[in-house]
Amino acid sequence: MKVKSRVLDHTGFERSLTRLAHEILEKNRGSESIVIVGIVTRGEHLARRLAAKIQDIEHRELRIGFIDITLYRDDLRGKPTQPILRGTDIHFDITDKNVILVDDVLYTGRTVRAALDELVDLGRPATIQLAVLVDRGHRELPIRADYVGKNIPTSRNEEVRVMMSETDGEDAVLLLESEGGDA
Amino acid sequence: MPLSSRHLLGLRDVPRGDIQEILDTAASFREVLERPIKKVPTLQGKTIVNLFYESSTRTRISFDLAERRLSADVVHFTSDTSSVKKGETLRDTARNLEAMKIDMIVVRHSAAGAAKFLSEVVSASVVNAGDGAHEHPTQALLDMYTLREKFGSLEGLKVCILGDIAHSRVARSNIHGLLTMGAKVSVCGPRTLIPREIGSMGVEVFDHVEEAIRDADAVNVLRIQLERMERAYFPSIREYHALYGLTEDRLRKAKSHTVVLHPGPINRDVELSADVADGERSLILRQVLNGVAVRMAVLYLIGTGT
Fold this sequence. Notes:
The complex is a heterodimer of chains A (183) and B (306).
Chain A: E1 2-8, H1 10-27, E2 34-39, H2 42-58, E3 63-67, E4 98-106, H3 110-122, E5 127-135, E6 147-151, E7 158-163, H4 165-168, E8 172-177
Parallel strand pairs in A: 2-3, 2-4, 4-5, 5-6
Antiparallel strand pairs in A: 1-8, 7-8
Helix pairs in contact in A: 1-2
Chain B: H1 16-33, E1 47-52, H2 58-69, E2 73-78, H3 90-99, E3 104-109, H4 114-121, E4 125-131, H5 137-151, E5 158-162, H6 169-180, E6 184-188, E7 204-206, H7 209-214, E8 218-221, H8 237-244, H9 248-251, E9 259-261, H10 274-277, H11 284-304
Parallel strand pairs in B: 1-2, 1-3, 3-4, 5-6, 5-8, 6-7, 8-9
Helix pairs in contact in B: 1-5, 1-11, 2-11, 3-4, 5-6, 5-11
């Protein structure tokens, strides 16, 4: 894979997150009823960042949890490599809360489907709202995001990589394409 | 990371990485057991047969719950209500079950090596739920999980296994697993119930309980298996309790943090006194709870790892 373009740099990344935070607060009329749930592993740091932004604006603690959808995947059979189970870590009751589900990239929608199924097994939230940094299209299920940092039209042989300073040393969103354009 | 084998027959040749993976995975399933809906769809569409040729309450229910909580389809087979009564062999029973398209077999049998034999004649994955006096790997894994949960790590942990070592598959599996994970293992019991080859396993042998538990972080008390004793290995139950029973008095001389495990079912006031079984040091009910999570981890790792 080689880098085709840099879609967001640090400043753009920050602006997108700030806007997402404000949109979430506007729609939910503040942060009182909301809890943040990040999908591990790529949505985990994003969820922390988003929660920090919302807390900066609202000056109150937000509850944040993490969901590992491995046990709910629809492709566990026939997968050559077994995914590592990291475990779900949500230490509060999500019943009657507005759950903000956070992931980095929305693509086929299958991860979000799994997360929705797992969330309803954990409790009965008032609403589940989806926040993603990038929507790259190609949905295979009837799922859409409530909050989108950036829409990036892509082809299927491209890849969107969200880099974060916590894990990759910098904040950026890159569009990669496979070399020689195969696939 | 997938396990290195698609069967779990014993812990003897299971590498450290696999045990680590099973224990880590079990931690995720412990979380699932705390949920309002204690069920995940992971093994949907898989069929598991529980093939029990020997009576069992705890292990059978624990496997059954683990399987159902992973959404597998479960079939039970117990030898006293089946064609075994009509003289069918283990091989024929297994092959017939397999013709019905099953994915995994959980087997308990009174013959050592039954699980291994089964894994050679069927294409389904086999999990050993106890074969004779040979191994009972999931029991040892849940014991190790419980110890790791309590102490954080098994490395350097001193574990004393007390009782009938010779007839105990729980002891054998625990010794293999604990040594692989870097724990120090000792055994204590009447010499008639300590196998001769124990020294070559890298295990210390004690004759007196007081001595055996003095430095131990954990004492795993085994059940006196009266049904497996075709001859007398000790004079009487009363004498066994007097010499080897784990009592509050004896425990007072151990370290203050020493914990007590028992694979169940307990013979109260035989291998351990009732006040120890119900006391603060006892992790016995914790073991039962963790058992479901550990079995879910094993079934998940074997059932989805191709």
